[in-house]
């Protein structure tokens, strides 16, 4: 995924690549096409619900969890882990932000690039 990729840009491009109109995709998701337009233009007042994001991902061939994170949400199944480890997670995020080399090592390890 491109570093400057936004949630809206990604779903708009994927929708176009799949040949859907906004109305068609909105119908598949059970949302109003004007809401989908706001999402595509990164102008929605709030991030969509996880179910809508997962529906977008399934219909557009995008990894569901990546899309959830890009939308600024955390997948439900991670919530307990984050709550149970809130101090460690906070320290990890701080260290990732403060140390780009450490962040690269973590991300490379997570993606399997360190092998």
UniProtKB/TrEMBL annotation:
A Pfam family annotated for this UniProt entry: HTH_19
CDD domains noted in UniProt: HTH_XRE
Protein's UniProt name: XRE family transcriptional regulator
Residues of the HTH cro/C1-type domain: 11-67
InterPro entries recorded: Cro/C1-type_HTH (IPR001387), Lambda_DNA-bd_dom_sf (IPR010982)
Native species: Limnospira platensis NIES-46
């Amino acid at each position: 995924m491109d570093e400057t990729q936004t949630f809206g840009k990604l779903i708009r491009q994927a929708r176009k690549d799949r040949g859907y109109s906004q109305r068609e995709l909105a119908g598949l998701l059970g949302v109003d096409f004007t809401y989908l337009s706001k999402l595509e233009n990164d102008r929605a007042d709030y991030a969509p619900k996880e179910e809508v994001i997962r529906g977008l991902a399934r219909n557009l061939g995008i990894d569901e969890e990546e899309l959830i994170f890009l939308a600024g949400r955390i997948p439900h199944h991670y919530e307990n882990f984050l709550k149970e480890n809130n101090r460690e997670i906070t320290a990890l995020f701080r260290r990732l932000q403060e140390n780009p080399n450490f962040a690269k090592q973590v991300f490379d390890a997570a993606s399997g690039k360190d092998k």
